[in-house]
Amino acid sequence: MLFRYIDKSKEVETIKQERTEMELKFLKSQINPHILFNNLNTIYSYSLEKPDETPDLILKLSDNLKHVLYESNAEKVPLSKELHFIDNYIEFHKIRTEGIKEISYTKNVKEVHHKIAPLLLITIIENAFKHSSVNSIIDLSLDVENSQLLFICKNDYLEQNSTNNNTIGLTNLRKRLELLYENKHELVIDKSSNFNVTIKLTLI
Fold first, then answer.
1. Among 135, 180, 181, which residue's Cα sits nearest to residue 156?
2. Residues with Cβ < 8 Å from 33, sequence gap 6 or more?
């Protein structure tokens, strides 16, 4: 009924844009506290079990919080900053899962001048750490070339524990991709053997 009374196309476009921005802010708000909560739990555990390694974890968390709270407010952020955040996040969890899980992370980035929507890939990475079984391998690969980003995450998973949380996180991710990368992305999820997620983005 609202659009029936709006004649100017610019006004319609403004309303659509404001709605999109509101949806994105809501979706990001679902991610940020979740990441912070998990990281704080890790630091608390280490302060009891491995206090000597706690300072390094706090520094990594501080760096990540800076990105999440201040640098990720824009619709797009420099690819270099987002990659640093991902690298730091993975290193953080390598410490946390040492002796429990094996992490293979390869990165081939030939272009760093692009921008990317913040906190997209972290949902996939966090699910891999959270839902893979003990003594398993988490295989992560990230490539950027010719304005195309390709990210692949492979891990086994515990079916009984992962369904609900994976569904929520991946639903969130799908919505953000549809809003920010309409006709410029591909998301493929294969659960035939392991939990394999492939995401392709056309970067600006």
1. 135
2. none
Give yes or no for residue 36 having a pLDDT over 80. no
Give CA–CA dist 67/85, Å, rounded.
Answer: 7
Residue 204 per-residue DSSP state? -
Q: What pLDDT is attached to residue 14?
A: 58
Q: Please check whether residue 155 is in contact with residue 198, taking contact to mean a CB–CB distance below 8 angstroms.
A: no
Domains of the chain: 3-202 (3.30.565.10)
Question: For 41-55, what is the mean pLDDT?
Answer: 82
pTM listed for this prediction: 0.77
State the CB neighbour count (10 A cutoff) for residue 55: 12
Distance of CA 63 to the CA centre of its chain: 16
| Cα distances (angstroms) measured from residue 5 to each of 2, 8, 9, 12, 64 | 6, 9, 11, 10, 46
